[in-house]
Amino acid sequence: MVETLESGEPFKRLFFALACEPAQRRDIARWRNELGSGLGRPVPSVNFHLTLMFLGSVATAQLPAILAAAAQVKVPQKPLTVMLDRLEVWRPAKALVLVPTQPPAALRQLAYALQQAMLPLGFTDAPREYRPHLTLARDYHGPVPEAQIAADFILRARHFTLYESRRGRYLPLAQWPLEVQA
Predict the structure, then answer these.
(1) How far apart are CA 146 and CA 12, in angstroms?
(2) Structural domains in the chain?
(3) pTM above 0.90?
(4) Which of the residues in the chain have pLDDT under 70?
């Protein structure tokens, strides 16, 4: 079944993100599971990522323009390293998240460059400061869990990816390198 917008156009739910490598997803999932039960609805580890920009429901016809705009984004010129070292509960979103205590400037610059590239296409991210995070669980209502071992995960991204969210799965549609290829 093809999902459609009110206009009747087919659409996709899209977002840009930095992916986690499979071994890192396993390590983060194992660490999360050691926090105990009652964590709400755990996010499947295969879906772990660090969101750069959420586009939402997008007419399929806009996809070529989105891909072209993303290809023009100024990237850091080297792999991006993000230390995920703090566990937080985001009350309004009812989410348990891993965040960087010190988000690197290159990460903020990449998120901003993506926002600027998408503006001419009519996309605006929520008018608030970019808050990098990796969602561990949804529908979480408790306090910040006590971890036996402190969070200490280093995400090393060599590319950023455009994902489609489809029925609880995140499917990569395209990716762009963060470093100049020689």
Answers:
(1) 38
(2) 11-177 (3.90.1140.10)
(3) no
(4) 1-8, 125-128, 180-182
